[in-house]
TrEMBL record:
Span of domain Integrase catalytic: 27-188
Gene3D superfamilies associated with the record: Ribonuclease H-like superfamily/Ribonuclease H (3.30.420.10)
NCBIfam families: transpos_IS3
Example of a GO biological process term: DNA integration
Gene Ontology molecular function, alphabetical: nucleic acid binding
Protein's name according to its UniProt entry: IS3 family transposase
Amino acid sequence: YREQGLSLRLKRPHRNKSAQRRQPQPQGLYPNHVWGMDFVSDALFDGRRLRLLTVIDLFTRECLGICVGQNLRSTEVAEMLNTIALRRPLPQLLKTDNGSEFAGKMLDKWVYERGIRIDFSRPGTPTDNATVESFNGRLRQECLNENWFMSLEDARCKIEAWRIHYNQRRPHSALGWMTPSEFAEKSAGWQNMQPT
C-alpha cells in the first residue's frame, strides 16, 4: 500500500449515544388520571375508509369510547371527549401521538379551557403510548379482522359490542386477571387518596 501511496483507513470504535435523556412515561396513578388516545384505520366491505378514535384510561385499562367515522377531525375528538365527560370525570393528562387531529388548535383550546395537560409522544416512537397501541392491536385482532362491516352503522354496532365485551368480560394479566370494569370498580376511591 505504501509503495502505491495508499493507506488503510482505520475506523475508530463508535458508540451509540441516546439523542435525549429518556424520560419516564406518565402512566395513570388512579382512575381518570391519564387517558390515552389514538386512531386505527380499517375499511368497510366495499373498500370505503373507516377511521376509529380509541380512548383508554391508562390506569384501569378501560376503553372509555370508540368513535367510528370515515373522516375524523379534531372537532370529532373534542365531541368524543365531551361525551365521555358526561359519564366520568375528565383526566389531568391526555397522552397522544403527534397526529394533526391531536396537535390542532381545536383540541388545544379544548384542553386549555378544562385545565388538562396534553403529552405528545416523541415522533416515530409508538412505545411512548404503549398501552393504547396494545389495545389497538387487540381491537384489530379480535374485532376488525373478524368482522365484515356492511355500513358505518353496522361497524358502530359491532365495535361497540366488542368494546363492552372488552371492558366487562375480558380479563387482563396486568390487572391481576380482572376485567377493566372490575378493576375500575375496585379502585374507584383511589383518586381521593392521592396527593394533589
